[in-house]
Write a structure and sequence with these properties.
It holds the Pfam family KYNU_C. InterPro entries: Kynureninase, PyrdxlP-dep_Trfase, PyrdxlP-dep_Trfase_major, PyrdxlP-dep_Trfase_small. Its EC number is 3.7.1.3. Its cofactor is pyridoxal 5'-phosphate. The chain contains twelve helices and 13 strands. By secondary structure, it is an alpha/beta fold. It folds into two domains: 138 residues, Alpha-Beta Complex (Aspartate Aminotransferase, domain 1), CATH 3.90.1150.10; 233 residues, Type I PLP-dependent aspartate aminotransferase-like (Major domain) (Aspartate Aminotransferase, domain 2). The chain has a seven-stranded mixed beta sheet, with helices on both faces. Helix 1 packs antiparallel against helix 12, helix 3 packs parallel to helix 9 and helix 11 packs across helix 12. The longest helix is centred in the last third of the chain and has 22 residues. The radius of gyration is 22 Å and the shape is globular. The chain starts with a helix and ends with a helix.
């Protein structure tokens, strides 16, 4: 039988991104952290960056900081994120709010651009927030939801979208990587199909940004949202980002009108006049301090390069699949993720009836995967911070737990 532990050591030794692992804060009691697709580890430089900001910029400059860069930070960081991870030219990405709030803002703006259409297309296994927000918008705007029934082991496909879109479709909303299975949707094909029907597209990038190459401009996506606390290591509750394709600037209007999105925010006068471009997506004061950890992560991601990160992601998930095939599939464990690399994000999902209890036991031993009700464990592999040895230790512990 193959010595998988030795294989893991060899893969780590040959990993061109191995030096990034030591840049992350290590949790001393954790044997294997397999939940980077839910919450990424913090980078060590985040501590220095935040201390410097608190002492020098906030403490030293005080209110003067707004005139020395803070007013534009949400847009400047958005531009950098767009360039490094989203395939977006400048002026189309803003960092603000939470994913839920930005999803509401941009979905509302999208359906208002199609006032003569009455349907929103979404799938039954999309992330709950996406479904709940769209249900609320449908009730608010007297629209119908057109549901696509998706296999939880896969995700939404272009063929499914083609079957349900037509002259009544205002908006198609889908996740680039399915939160449950890790299925990687063909965003470009879905966008083309939606556009052929005269509809707009809003893409949720939460489970792909920072791990999978994205090219929003090339795909001609209309709107996109995503969080920054998974593969972008922004920390719990870190701000989200919103993308508005420049073809919709000056036309799309989000519904939460606040002073920061006003054309002249310091005039403080009556009436609302939206700012030009992506700034109009903003509502309230940007979370300046909360952007700092994600900015540290962008430094690492830019240095590594998203293509190298994707290659490491595929190697990690390939190794996890090999261990799963060898140790788990003959013990009542089911794989509910795609095997093909072209259809896979950076996590795989396994299922067995007793996985809730097993997940609790693994956490007690310092092996941290992610449980998803009712019976699934996700193995989330963050390329810059996860080693092959960690994957081996984690899957070995899981194999021991299933008996």
């Amino acid at each position: 039988m193959e010595d998988f532990e030795a294989r893991a050591r060899g893969l780590d030794a040959a990993d061109p991104l191995r030096h990034f692992r030591e840049r992350f804060v290590d949790a001393g009691d954790v044997v294997a952290y397999l939940d980077g697709n839910s919450l990424g580890r913090p980078l060590r430089t985040t501590t220095d960056r935040m201390t410097e900001f608190i002492e020098d910029e906030w403490g030293g400059r005080l209110i003067r900081g707004w005139g020395e860069g803070w007013m534009d930070q949400a847009l400047n960081v958005g531009d950098r994120l767009g360039r490094i991870a989203l395939g977006a030219e400048p002026g189309q990405v803003a960092v603000a709010d939470s994913t839920s709030v930005l999803l509401y803002k941009l979905a509302r703006a999208a359906v208002d651009l199609r006032p003569d259409r009455s349907e929103i297309v979404l799938d039954t296994d999309n992330f709950p927030t996406d479904r709940y927000v769209l249900e609320g918008i449908a009730a608010e705007r007297d629209l119908r939801l057109r549901w696509i029934s998706t296999d939880p082991a896969r995700g939404i496909t272009d063929e499914q979208v083609a079957e349900v879109t037509g002259p009544d479709t205002a908006l198609v909303v889908f996740s680039h990587v399915a939160y449950r299975s890790g299925y990687l949707a063909d965003a470009a094909a879905i966008t083309r199909t939606a556009h052929a029907a005269g509809a707009l597209v809003l893409c949720d990038l939460c489970h792909s940004v920072g791990a999978v190459p994205i090219d929003l401009d090339e795909w001609q996506v209309d709107f996109a949202v995503g969080c920054t606390y998974k593969y972008l290591n922004g920390g719990p509750g870190s701000p989200a980002f919103g993308y508005v394709n420049r073809t919709h600037h000056g036309q799309a209007q989000q519904p939460i009108w606040g002073w920061m999105g006003h054309a002249e925010p310091f005039t403080m006068g009556p009436g609302y006049r939206p700012a030009a471009g992506i700034r109009s997506v903003l509502s309230g004061t940007p979370p300046i301090l909360a952007m700092l950890p994600m900015m540290a992560s962008l430094d690492a991601l830019e240095e590594a390069g998203i293509e190298a990160v994707r290659a490491k992601s595929l190697s990690l998930t390939d190794f996890a699949l090999e261990l799963t095939d060898t140790w788990l599939l003959d013990r009542g464990v089911e794989l509910v993720s795609p095997r093909a690399e072209t259809l896979r994000g950076s996590h795989i999902t396994l299922r067995r009836a007793d996985f809730r209890e097993i997940n609790d036991r693994l956490w007690e031993k310092g092996v941290i995967p992610d449980f998803r009700s009712p019976d699934a464990i996700r193995i989330g592999l963050s390329p810059l911070s996860t080693s092959f040895a960690e994957v081996h230790r984690g899957l070995s512990a899981l194999a021991e737990a299933v008996g």
